[in-house]
Amino acid sequence: MEKNDIKIKILELEENFERLNNIERETILLNFIDCLNKGKIRAAEKVGNNWQVNSWVKRGILMLFRQGKLCDMSRENFAFFDKHLLTLRDLTLEDSVRLVPGGSSIRSGVYIAKGVICMPPMYINIGAYVDEDTMIDSHALVGTCAQIGKNVHVSAAAQIGGVLEPIGANPVIIEDNVMIGGNCGVYEGVIVKKNAILGSGVILNSSTKVYDLPNEKILQFPLEIPENAVIVQGARSVNTDFARSYGLSIATPLIVKYRDGKSDAKTELETILR
């Protein structure tokens, strides 16, 4: 089923959910999951230079929860219980994804491109899109509907936030060739443009102010990290009498420079791993 066909079916299902029987509903929803798994549809996509949210995809995911019945999905010594339509993502050798054993899970309804590496334990939630040659490292999370580009490194313990509601809310978007350092958190629809580097421990959400030191400006809502930006977690002083008396400051991400040859050498991904 192609993109426009499944979009029409999902919108019709939302409008007529109670009038259709279980078989009719599940046929549509299973086709919807198949399209997500194959990357035919996605929660957000780039149109020209801008990202467009496909809210109807999020509506479809919500209907998977609505239609699903809690059941036992345990496998061998691995016990888990979930809605019956929300299974684990089945991979085969032909998918060319390197999934290292040790407690990782990928939910069905996730697009995983060829060359992706998943290091245990990590988790990728429904609606996410992970493009070619990206690495999802140990203890990392790719949340619901998050969009991850090519050649991205999501380092150990990094959190890429997910979103289903509100329907029109932007998912987190990480463009191509981005380095997400260990223990980073990117949430609430932040867009990280291509080739950017987030140093370890950087936290970004929709209300974060990012101070661009080279260009002497402040980036605010809606937060987009520029191409080639190199960000570290800094601090700024709090200018109240109480704060000054105790020397208090607030953690603040700082763009300290834009990528150069030295940055590229430190973040180069080894093709041999892929």
Low-confidence stretches: none
Question: How many H/I helices?
Answer: 5
CATH C-level class: Mainly Beta
**Radius of gyration, taken over Cα atoms and rounded to an integer in Å:** 20 Å
Strand content: 25-35%
Percent range of helical residues: 10-25%
Strands ordered across the widest β-sheet: 5-8-11-14-17-20-25-26-22-23
Structural class: alpha/beta
What is the makeup of the main sheet?
A: 10 strands, mixed
Report mean pLDDT, rounded to a whole number. 94
Q: Count of DSSP E strands?
A: 26
What is the chains' assembly state?
A: single chain
CATH-defined fold name? UDP N-Acetylglucosamine Acyltransferase, domain 1
> What is the CA–CA distance across the termini?
31 Å
CATH H-level homologous superfamily name: Hexapeptide repeat proteins
Name the overall outline.
globular
Task: List the domain count as a whole number.
Answer: 1
